[in-house]
């Protein structure tokens, strides 16, 4: 038996590409976006009472990773990308039905829009459902996950003076915490774990409408080189 589902809305996110998105929600509190609800959920009735909630669960589709043939094993980045484990033991994007879930902060409710932070969703992500986070039921004191027991180790983020000035100026223009967003995302080292680049190799990603460029001058350290509008 098969079932069909339809998005109830789409996320307008600071993340314009998959690279550098935090691998779990809440790791970058400065990562913000808006869930724009579709009819008939956009009139205000569907979100009535949600202003009493600080966090919500989002069920969504990994719309750029949908596959016809399900994978039974995946190679999660947390294990270095070179060790295969069962798909149900991970939160990998390659899932049998392409469904993801994230707990994110609900900053504001505005009729057909939910203003969110601490997100890990790509711009344009289709959302299937919104559920309130219930602390007494959703937080399990003695829970464990031996494969991912602790948050990722953060690496140092340094700035070229001109890049920091650029980031501050664009942050003011966007009215977004851009400096914090860049630092929180890059400190988690978005490279695949098996990559050991030469210091001169430059990396880049788009956040909001700016392009961020950086390199790794030495192990365990990132230097932001430029933050520009293309």
From TrEMBL:
Q: Where is the TsaA-like domain?
A: 5-142
- Gene Ontology MF, one: tRNA (L-threonylcarbamoyladenosine(37)-C2) methyltransferase activity
> What are the BP-aspect GO terms?
methylation
Task: Note whether Methyltransferase occurs among the keywords.
Answer: yes
Top-rank lineage group of the source organism: Bacteria
Question: Is the Methyltransferase keyword given for this protein?
Answer: yes
What are the alphabetically sorted keywords of the record? Answer: Methyltransferase, S-adenosyl-L-methionine, Transferase
The record's section on NCBIfam families has:
tRNA_TsaA
Q: Which family does it belong to?
A: Belongs to the tRNA methyltransferase O family.
Which protein, by its recorded name, is this?
tRNA-Thr(GGU) m(6)t(6)A37 methyltransferase TsaA
Species for this entry: Phytopseudomonas seleniipraecipitans
Tell me the lineage of the source organism.
Answer: Bacteria, Pseudomonadati, Pseudomonadota, Gammaproteobacteria, Pseudomonadales
């Amino acid at each position: 038996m098969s079932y069909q589902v339809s998005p109830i809305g789409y996320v307008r996110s600071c993340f314009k590409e998959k690279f550098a998105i935090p691998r779990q929600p809440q790791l970058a509190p400065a990562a913000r976006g808006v869930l724009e609800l579709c009819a008939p959920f956009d009139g205000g009735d569907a979100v009535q009472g949600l202003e009493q909630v600080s966090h919500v669960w989002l069920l969504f589709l990994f719309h750029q990773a949908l596959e016809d043939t399900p994978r039974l094993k995946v190679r999660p980045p947390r294990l270095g990308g070179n060790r295969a484990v069962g798909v149900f033991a991970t939160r990998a994007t390659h899932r049998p039905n392409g469904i993801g879930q994230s707990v994110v902060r609900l900053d504001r409710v505005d009729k057909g829009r939910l203003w969110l932070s601490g997100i890990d969703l790509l711009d344009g992500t289709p959302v299937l459902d919104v559920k309130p986070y219930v602390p007494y039921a959703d937080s399990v004191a003695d829970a464990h996950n031996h494969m991912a027991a602790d948050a990722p180790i953060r690496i140092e983020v340094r700035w070229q003076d001109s890049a920091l000035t650029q980031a501050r100026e664009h942050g003011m223009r966007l009215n977004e915490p851009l400096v914090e967003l860049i630092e929180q995302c890059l400190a988690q080292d978005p490279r695949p774990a098996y990559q050991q680049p030469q210091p001169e190799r430059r990396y880049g990603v788009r956040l909001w409408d700016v392009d961020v460029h950086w390199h790794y001058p030495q192990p365990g350290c990132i230097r932001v080189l430029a933050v520009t509008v293309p």
